[in-house]
Amino acid sequence: MRKVVLILYLSLLGSCVIGQETNSSPVKWGNAFYLNLSVGESTEFLGKNIHLVSMENNWCLVDVDGVRENLIVARRALPVVVNGIRIFIADNRNVEKLTTDETNPHVHDALTKDALLCLSDASKPLLDNGKFTFPVDRSDGFEWTKAENSHTWAYLRPTRSHEGTDINLNRARGKEIDAIVSIEDGIVHWKADENPNESCLFIESHSSPGVYYIYQHLNRKTVSLKEGDRVKKGQFLAYIWGDWKWGHLHFAVKGQEGVSDYKNRYSTLINCFPQLYELWHGDLKSHTPVRTTGHYHFAKHYWLYGNEQALNGYDEILGYGWNLGRWCTAYTVETSVTNEGNSPDQSAVLRKTIHKNTGMPASNPNNFYDFEVKVSDGEYRVNVKAGNMYAPTWQRIEIENIDSGTYELKAGELKWTGEKRVKISDGKLTIRIYLKDDVTEAGIFEIYFTIAG
């Protein structure tokens, strides 16, 4: 009976989905459906069989009518079209196991089985641009780098995975520029004043009732909306609040269980990064920049870079990052400060085993870490600063297979390798950091490169 009810429910929504028994009905947002599956379970979508074959760390092997694809949880990744069906993995049990999420214990509650898949017709956009818009106005010249450390389900510390997507608005701190706007038509369910400076808005979707948008860190004095107000797509909501160290919009999408109060707002969240990417670019194609210069910081300089810190695993969205393969569920390296403190002196910390204090510790199968950047071919000048402000380190550094020195440094000691000239012919700059042994830390503080001219 439950299977028949589910089929009828989805048919009424205008999609050809046949699901097996689930703990909750699929969530429809725009042209996509969020559906839970256990490993070994199948569902039917647009006449094709979708089968969750297996799960390894933050990867899921999915079969669509005989065509298989390994998909990473889309914390910052795009959907993949598999045998005509567009799919991304919104969440899985291994990512959930990383953290205890003590402040928001129900943040992963939209995940009721092994994986939460987002399925859609590849011939349609995830969100129709006639009904939806990016939640930050671009008329002041705002540019979204997508490089924030705090994207959806980003690992921040053992007690917290990030609840939504932070959109860096560092240049708008203390200024009334880069306005926050309504992503679509909707109704304000509540406004909460978080402190004397900030407010939070909770808005229900007009096109998908039961889906809610959370806008946090709004400048309280610029919010004039109240409970019950209706908003239109692109309507001004507020400006961002920010101080000397940060300024960003914390944006999240809630997909189930109706209206929450402020304290419980971050429950049953659904991953929205691919939708935001599509609204920003107008499509889901790759727009990865190919660089000829770059300056990557592993320190936490809020006042310069907002919440951007180059700790992430390599992904095609950014075109740079650590090559962490499939062995690291957190898909990020560690920093020298294990909590989310505001110290500006953090550096990337590399050990054989990282994230030991989480539910999913990860052991590097190699005795090195690679940091990679997508670049144009040519000759480059490269410099790397090694060390850690908080602990002694040992590291041997290679820049494009050129030995750039071995550095045994005291706590607080930082040292540049000195500029090296290297030739790139494969479209990728690779900096390799060798480990001394299984316990000694290696530390990286900064990387700079520019094409030789």
Task: Give the SSE map.
Elements: H1 2-12, E1 17-18, E2 27-29, E3 32-37, E4 42-45, E5 48-56, E6 59-64, E7 67-72, E8 80-82, E9 85-92, H2 93-97, E10 115-121, E11 155-157, E12 160-161, E13 165-168, E14 180-181, E15 186-193, E16 198-205, E17 212-219, E18 230-231, E19 236-238, E20 248-254, E21 269-270, H3 273-281, E22 293-297, H4 302-305, E23 320-322, E24 334-335, E25 348-350, E26 353-354, E27 362-363, E28 368-374, E29 378-388, E30 393-399, E31 402-409, E32 413-416, E33 420-424, E34 428-434, E35 442-451
Antiparallel strand pairs: 1-4, 2-3, 3-10, 4-5, 5-6, 6-7, 8-9, 9-10, 11-12, 13-20, 14-19, 15-16, 15-18, 16-17, 17-20, 20-21, 22-35, 23-28, 24-25, 25-35, 26-27, 28-34, 29-32, 29-33, 29-35, 30-31, 30-34
Short description:
With 453 residues, this protein is mainly beta. The protein has helices at residues 2-12, 93-97, 273-281, 302-305, and strands at residues 17-18, 27-29, 32-37, 42-45, 48-56, 59-64, 67-72, 80-82, 85-92, 115-121, 155-157, 160-161, 165-168, 180-181, 186-193, 198-205, 212-219, 230-231, 236-238, 248-254, 269-270, 293-297, 320-322, 334-335, 348-350, 353-354, 362-363, 368-374, 378-388, 393-399, 402-409, 413-416, 420-424, 428-434, 442-451.
